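dumping this here so i dont lose it
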């Protein structure tokens, strides 16, 4: 007689996250805090792996095979892969960077993410996973390790967050959470909205502005000033650029809104809208379980290592050289990678002081392309500003709330 069985569709699986983080290692978040039910790639799987010892290599057994074995440690890990909606990417960035500074009195909220200067312990949370109809797990002490973002020319940004834990989990036997939360509203971030902007160092100059006039007089020096540079300073409206600079005067695109003698700053900004082709960002905190004696089969916590990151994208070559020269002269740059600022939900990455690490000539559909690369060795801290920063605008008031 043939066996009968019923196979399960992948739609039966569930993944639920939390905006909260644990205050104590080894203690699970309450189910009430698990509220972020996700749409996720079916390749997303969390695993439990034992480390073992055996006497296989010992002599005197009369056999080459082990005659005893035992578990010496447990490890938990997994990778969450998904199209990047704003809520999920905000959660990923918060868990990875470790500091979330949120502003706003109502949704949406702006989150600025930074990496701690001293604290090497990663924030940890609890994750609920329904793998099959009767295999449901909670993993506690889960911390972010690395994040990979792929930005296509069209379609949604994709994100993959690697996570590691201390080895602790528990099984919900033939049951589910008391109340499985509703799916989080998805506000996907599109690759077609992402803009790469590279700025040259600002040029400072002093001069005298007159309210209602577009001319700055008595300019200290026009060296380094050119058409199209953005100008900031007292009395200068936002999005003001230089129309011309000659002698001791500079003509602006907008009239000044205040009079006075002050210092101004001009920045050459190159947005590559319409010329960028392919973009990837990877940030690796090198987080690993911190193992110490006295903890039994589980790690004490998850600690970060030295942060590494890489940024790679291609730019269609212009008729005039505006890319390769930066590489050959090792020009000091600042880089912003951001979604369209007019969008309600956004993300951005900033690199305040960067040098091109590699610039390779390529060809795409009969067009000359420059393949640019940056990493933690060519992007450095600028004063008190870290070498990398990130931002997201989401409907979540705060991530990393300790409970």
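and the seq i came up w/
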């Amino acid at each position: 007689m043939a066996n009968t069985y019923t196979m399960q569709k992948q739609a039966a699986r569930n993944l639920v996250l939390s905006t909260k983080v644990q205050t104590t290692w080894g203690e699970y978040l309450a189910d009430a805090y698990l509220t972020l039910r996700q749409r996720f790639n079916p390749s997303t799987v969390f695993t439990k792996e034992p480390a073992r010892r055996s006497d296989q290599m010992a002599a005197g057994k009369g056999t080459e095979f082990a005659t005893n074995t035992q578990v010496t440690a447990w490890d938990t890990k997994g990778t969450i892969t998904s199209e990047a909606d704003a809520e999920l990417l905000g959660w990923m960035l918060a868990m990875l960077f470790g500091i979330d500074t949120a502003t706003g009195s109502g949704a949406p909220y702006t989150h600025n993410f930074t990496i701690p200067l001293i604290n090497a312990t990663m924030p940890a949370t609890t994750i609920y996973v329904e793998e099959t109809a009767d295999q449901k797990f909670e993993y506690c002490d889960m911390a972010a390790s690395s994040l990979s973002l792929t930005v296509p020319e069209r379609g949604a940004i994709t994100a993959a967050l690697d996570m590691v834990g201390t080895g602790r989990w528990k099984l919900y036997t033939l049951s589910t959470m008391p109340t499985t939360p509703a799916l989080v509203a998805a506000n996907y971030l599109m690759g077609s909205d992402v803009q790469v902007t590279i700025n040259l160092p600002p040029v400072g100059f002093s001069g005298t502005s007159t309210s209602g006039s577009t001319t700055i007089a008595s300019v200290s020096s026009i060296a380094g000033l050119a058409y199209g540079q953005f100008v900031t300073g007292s009395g200068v409206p936002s999005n003001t650029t230089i129309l011309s600079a000659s002698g001791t005067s500079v003509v602006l695109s907008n009239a000044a809104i205040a009079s006075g003698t002050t210092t101004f700053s001009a920045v050459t900004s190159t947005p590559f809208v319409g010329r960028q082709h392919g973009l990837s960002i990877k940030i690796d905190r090198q987080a690993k379980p911190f193992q110490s004696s006295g903890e039994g089969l589980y790690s004490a916590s998850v600690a970060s290592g030295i942060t590494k990151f890489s940024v790679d994208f291609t730019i269609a070559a212009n008729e005039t050289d505006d890319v390769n020269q930066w590489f050959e002269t090792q020009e000091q740059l600042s880089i912003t990678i951001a979604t369209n600022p007019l969008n309600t939900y956004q993300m951005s990455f900033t690199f305040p002081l960067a040098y091109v690490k590699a610039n390779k000539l390529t060809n795409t559909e009969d067009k000359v392309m420059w393949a640019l690369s940056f990493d933690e060795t060519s992007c450095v801290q600028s004063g008190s500003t870290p070498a990398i920063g990130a931002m997201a605008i989401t409907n979540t008031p705060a991530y990393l709330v300790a409970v």
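The longest strand covers residues 135-151.
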